[in-house]
Structures are given as structure tokens and as C-alpha cells.
Amino acid sequence: MSEIKRIEIDEFWADSTVIEAGDYIFVGYCMGNEGKSIEEQIHGAIDVLEKRLKMVGLTLECVVKMDCLFKNIEDLNILPKVLKERFAGKYPTRKAYTSDFIREGIIFQIDAIAYKNACG
Question: Entry's Pfam families (predicted)?
């Protein structure tokens, strides 16, 4: 069995935002463009996800599962447009939830799982 690698650790919150466990990469707490529109925040979260995947040599194409957290579930209608732009037909499975975020300007967040052998 291979070791679990904690790639990016947030000491303040006591969590790891990127973990490599075997062929799977777990990426958490992806948010960006705080205080901006829902579309800008979805793009910002995907930008952060993409940056974290690059830490382990992966791309968005490797993402197999996403949990999408919304402050307002009605904003779910914006998600498909952005995913079509960013994932070019290689869509992960996904689930949407509502959440009360810790800061007022946050209205969207992604947690994701990527598979190292899914790219190509």
C-alpha cells in the first residue's frame, strides 16, 4: 500500500487541501473571487482547483467527482454553462449542496476527487 501524501496543509484550519492517496487526489476548499458574482466565483473555484491539481501534475480532465456548495441553490442553473467552458466535455460526476459559509462574500465552493489514471 502506498503512503498518503498531504501536499498542501493549512495549519490555521488544521486540514489538508490536497491529499494524494494511491491513484486518487482529494482536493478541498476551492473558492475564488470572493464577493463577486456567482459565475465569477464558480470560475474562481475552478481556477483554484486547477492550480491545486497542477501541484500533483494533473489537469481538470482528471477530475472524476465534484461536490459543489452553493449559498443559494438557485445559482445551480449557472453551473452547467461554466462547466461546459472549463471541462470541454470531460465532465465529472457532481452533487450540489447548500451551505452557510463562514464569510459573507463566499457563495460557492468546490471539493473534488481526481484519478491519476483518468487523464489522457
Answer: Ribonuc_L-PSP
